[in-house]
Design brief:
With 328 residues, the protein is an alpha+beta fold. The protein has helices at residues 15-22, 26-38, 62-76, 93-100, 153-167, 217-220, 230-234, 243-264, 267-276, and strands spanning 43-46, 50-53, 83-90, 109-116, 134-143, 174-176, 180-183, 186-197, 203-212, 283-287, 293-301, 307-311, 314-318, 322-325. A seven-stranded mixed beta sheet has the order 3-4-5-9-8-7-6, sandwiched between helices. Strands 13-12-11-10-14 form a five-stranded antiparallel beta sheet. A hairpin with a 5-residue loop joins strand 11 and strand 12 (307-311). The model has no long low-confidence stretch (mean pLDDT 93). Bound molecules: biotin. Biotin (BTN) binds at residues 92-94, 116, 119-122, 125, 127, 136-138, 180, 190-192, 208-210.
Length: 328
């Protein structure tokens, strides 16, 4: 059993016991525990007794995920064609599926990690998570079509994530173009889509989703913008968030969205996406990838997911960039 999972019940185990059960050296045990503290886990060490986790997380568990997914499939009358893998630590779940792609078919593979040491965000940014306090996973999916058809995929995935969270009882989830998940203008999740393939298809995609579930203040200070988490959105009186249940709902919802996208593209999601857009009708500044900025009123998104800005009667569409509210 992995070293940290041995401590899942909150009881003490000695360094020797941990090492023997995990098949690791004592030095490696010390290193993993030090890394776990860096990743946000509170650990108590007592000479003569060993180590224990002060607040053991509800670990991601393939059996709990599968059981919940089976229930959701029975309710929907659909089988969700995925396999699940859970790891405690990895550089990035998306990097791992991208690495596997040339050798193996990753269609329908869900790879979830308790902690990513090199989580990646959009536009080359890093994605910060904490052990047990984030939900980070990637899903491989194959499409017959090419990159042009997939332009709106990340927006459709945003709709799928929002639907899943609302089905699990979270308050109305808003989106920020192209695919930030926000609540009251604070970001709590993001989506990163990467693809491989010919321009005309087929394409193999890796859909990475990162959600802040319960982010301690120590982790927030590493993030260069104000953020929120699902625990805050749910409120103090809400029960603890079950990440296995949440992951099952997300995967079920995403597989429905991806199958629909494969046959119809972005158009069936456009109206809902726009309805959820927190910046719809607002005057924004758009920072373009080349550093130039454009201002305009958000008219919406077109059938391929491009942002449409209005400047008087003129309309311009943009495929990438970063929007912010323009201060009056
Ligand atoms: C963003 O908003 O910038 C996108 C963040 C995407 C983060 C997820 S976490 C799982 C997957 N693995 C990664 O390294 N990134 C994505």
């Amino acid at each position: 059993m992995s070293l940290l999972r041995q401590l899942a019940d909150g009881n003490f185990l000695s360094g020797e016991e941990l090492a023997a059960n995990a098949g690791l050296t004592r030095a490696r045990v010390s290193q993993v525990l030090k890394d776990a503290e860096t990743a946000g886990l509170a650990l108590e060490r007592i000479r003569g007794r060993g180590y224990r986790l002060l607040e053991p997380p509800n670990f991601l568990d393939p059996a709990a995920f599968k059981a919940r997914l089976a229930t959701l499939d029975a309710e929907r009358g659909i089988a969700t064609p995925v396999t699940i893998e859970v790891v405690d630590e990895i550089d990035s779940t998306s990097s791992e599926l991208m690495r596997r792609m040339p050798r193996r078919d990753v269609h329908g593979v869900v790879l979830a990690a308790e902690w990513q040491t090199a989580g990646r965000g959009r536009r080359g940014r890093t994605w910060t998570g904490v052990f047990g306090g984030s939900l980070t996973f990637s899903l491989g999916w194959r499409f017959e079509q090419g990159a042009g058809f997939l332009a709106g995929l990340s927006l459709a995935v945003g709709v799928g994530v929002a639907r899943a969270l609302e089905a699990e009882g979270f308050a109305k989830v808003a989106l920020k173009w192209p695919n930030d998940l926000i609540h009251r203008h604070l970001k709590f999740g993001g989506i990163l889509i990467e693809l491989n393939g010919d321009a005309l298809g087929p394409s193999a995609t890796v859909i990475g989703v990162g959600l802040n579930v319960r982010l301690p203040a120590s982790a927030r200070k590493d993030i260069p913008q104000p953020v929120t988490d699902l625990a805050t959105i749910a409120g103090k009186k809400a029960p603890a968030i079950d990440r296995n249940r949440l992951l099952a709902r997300l995967v079920a919802e995403l597989s429905d969205v991806l199958r629909r996208y494969a046959s119809e593209g972005f158009p069936p999601f456009a109206a809902e996406w726009q309805h959820r857009h927190a910046y719809q009708g607002k005057v924004v500044r758009l920072l373009l990838p080349d550093g130039a900025t454009v201002t305009g009123k958000v008219a919406g998104v077109d059938a391929s997911g491009a942002l449409v800005l209005a400047d008087g009667p003129r309309r311009a569409r943009f495929l990438s960039g970063e929007i912010s509210l323009r201060r009056a």
